[in-house]
Design goal:
Structural class: alpha/beta
CATH superfamily: SGNH hydrolase
CATH architecture: 3-Layer(aba) Sandwich
Largest sheet: 8 strands, mixed
Number of helices: 13
Helix content: 25-40%
Number of domains: 1
Radius of gyration: 20 Å
Shape: globular
Length: 362
């Protein structure tokens, strides 16, 4: 990269701090590719998990040169290694700031060779967060009469490219792949969105509560991620339920909140959206304070109020290219399928949930 290119990239640094489940403008994207192998003692057999996505699977941490080593797909690789007794290579092909169409075109299609390797056993992806975040920013910036088309466009693009991604993976992944899985969207900044808009509703002439407007849109996006997964042979990791609901029954309805919020395969869109936005709305909490019991909570979101927290250090990923490496598993054995920190960090929680769909054998 020449000096001019470096200056241009550094100019985007403030915007990159807002990337999440996505990020800002399409121009503010950053490839963050990592290959990390869980190198297990006593075996030379190696399988691969391939993960495509944006800043979530990238393990974005506010840096343009490094990322979390144990982002969710690599956490899952550690579970696979313990379960299968094998080395597992976690290949993350991610672009922080990319909208769904970009993840689909530049990563899933453009870098399909990674999932075509004969060692590949798991293919996973996530997308749509940046579509939602950009629409949210656009609506927040509006004055005068609110134009909700920005949200409708984000929803439509999400549905289009999630379906296209699944179809493409089904047609192009190595025939020996045992699991294909998508992770849906949690809601970063949920508490911060509980404010009135600057613009006014075209029907009532009144300002709107932004959280009230954004939550149904996100619910519809999440519904179609999980519904398309059901239709097209994928599993759906419900990160919204795992991040936004407590791990105990806070409201006394007899159901653990995070389980009650979970998408139910085969339910209608209207039923799911009603459950999330009305019936169980009171159980949703900002993931900055995720309660794992009545007396204990953990912060699942970094200080940018967008990206998941993580444990396990960083690797080179970003402005100066990606990296590859290997290391012994942090936990060589994981009795009961949960490592000791499975519910203490955002990436650990997502990685554990991915692991619950893992095949019994490679």
């Amino acid at each position: 990269m020449n000096l001019l290119g470096l200056v241009r990239t550094l100019r985007f640094l403030p915007a990159l701090a807002l990337l999440s489940v996505g990020g800002q403008a399409v121009a503010s994207t950053l490839n963050q590719n990592v290959s990390w192998t869980i190198d297990r003692a006593g075996t030379s057999t190696k399988y691969r998990i391939v993960a495509y996505g944006d800043s979530i699977y990238a393990g974005y941490n506010g840096s343009i040169t490094n990322a979390a080593k144990f982002a969710a797909p690599t956490v899952d690789a550690e579970y696979l290694s313990a379960h299968w007794g094998a080395d597992i290579e976690s290949v993350r092909r991610a672009k922080s700031g990319a909208v769904a169409s970009d993840v689909y075109k530049s990563k899933i299609v453009g870098e399909r060779s990674y999932m075509q390797a004969s060692s590949t056993r798991v293919v996973t992806f996530e997308m749509c967060g940046n579509d939602g975040l950009q629409a949210r920013s656009a609506l927040k910036d509006q004055s005068g009469t609110c134009n909700y088309n920005v949200l409708a466009t984000a929803e439509a693009n999400c549905k289009t490219y999630v379906a296209a991604a699944m179809d493409y993976i089904n047609a192009n992944a190595y025939a020996g792949v045992k699991l294909k899985v998508i992770s849906n969207l949690f809601y970063p900044g949920y508490a911060a969105d509980n404010v009135q808009s600057n613009c006014r509703d075209p029907g009532t002439g009144a300002t709107i509560n932004l959280q009230d407007k954004f939550l149904p849109a996100l619910a519809r996006m999440n519904y179609w991620m999980c519904e398309y997964a059901r239709q097209k042979g994928f599993q759906c990791t419900d990160s919204f339920a795992d991040y936004m609901g407590a791990d105990y029954d806070r409201d006394g309805d007899g159901l653990v909140d995070s389980e009650a919020l979970r998408h139910m395969p085969g339910e209608s869109e209207s039923n799911y959206v009603t459950r999330i936005t009305s019936t169980l709305r009171s159980t949703i909490r900002d993931a900055n304070t995720h309660f794992v019991s009545a007396t204990s909570s953990y912060d699942y979101i970094q200080s940018d109020d967008t990206h998941p927290t993580y444990s396990g250090g960083t690797v080179t990923a970003g402005l100066f290219g990606g990296s590859s490496g290997k290391g012994a598993p942090r936990y060589s054995n994981i009795p009961g399928g949960k490592n000791p920190i499975w519910n203490q960090y955002g990436h650990e929680r997502m990685g554990w949930r991915l692991s619950t769909s893992n095949p019994l054998a490679p």
